[in-house]
Amino acid sequence: MMEDELIKIWQSSSSQERLKFEKSKLMLELQSGLGRLNGWWKYRVQVEIVAAMIAIPAFALIAFWVPFTTSKIASALIIIYVIYVIMRLLSIKKFKPRDLEENYLEYLKKSREYLEAQRHLLETYNYWGALPLYPLLFLFLMGFWEIPSKRDLIIIVYLGMVAIHIYGYFLNMRRVKNEIMPRINRIDELIESLEE
């Protein structure tokens, strides 16, 4: 009975009212998707911060404990690198939209800008996040190369880091393709329909 009444109301409503309903439905779907994506991003940054809180003291101790000069220099540079990566990830917060400050169209535009910043960060991570680490890691491990029994371990660690970054690259590209780009496209559709 209730469904029949809803169907009659829907059929008797004007096309303008139907369009408003479709817009609000799209807005709710988008809001839900953005909430999940923002939660994922926040989690990722928290994981990176925890990793940095472990790495910085660890490499500070290594810099004082290890007798090899190249490893000491590399440890100090790795600490600087870790701080740079965290600052880069945290810099994206300035793009995050606030719900209460703007009208919905402005919120959508800011959300699009925030998603674009995330997309750019993920797509370029290899250039600013992964590639600078390899020379530092190489320099760090070369200090231990003087110990013949550690050479196999050094090669395994270095190749392991390469494998982790390759895996991370494909995860980042999948996240961009399957989650960020569809939401950017959805926001573009909503912006176009609201500007009409």
Describe the structure.
This protein is mainly α and 196 residues long. It has one domain (35-195). It is 85% helix and 0% strand. It contains seven helices and no strands. The chain has helices spanning 2-12, 15-65, 69-90, 104-123, 125-130, 133-144, 151-195. Helix 2 (15-65) packs antiparallel against helix 3 (69-90), helix 2 (15-65) runs antiparallel to helix 7 and helix 3 packs antiparallel against helix 6. It is elongated. Residues 15-19 have low confidence and may be disordered.
Summary?
The protein has one domain (35-195).
Characteristics:
196 residues, 85% helix, 7 helices
**N/C terminus separation:** 37 Å
> Looking at the structure, what is the overall shape?
elongated
Helix content: over 70%
Fraction of residues in β-strands:
under 5%
- Give the helix/strand class: mainly alpha
Please tell me the overall pLDDT: 82
Q: Spell the H/E element sequence.
A: HHHHHHH
Q: How can the largest sheet be summarized?
A: none
- Low-confidence parts lasting 5 or more residues at pLDDT below 50? 15-19
Number of domains: 1
What's the Cα radius of gyration? 24 Å
- Number of separate helices: 7
Task: Furnish the topology, listing elements before pairings.
Elements: H1 2-12, H2 15-65, H3 69-90, H4 104-123, H5 125-130, H6 133-144, H7 151-195
Helix pairs in contact: 2-3, 2-7, 3-6, 4-7, 6-7
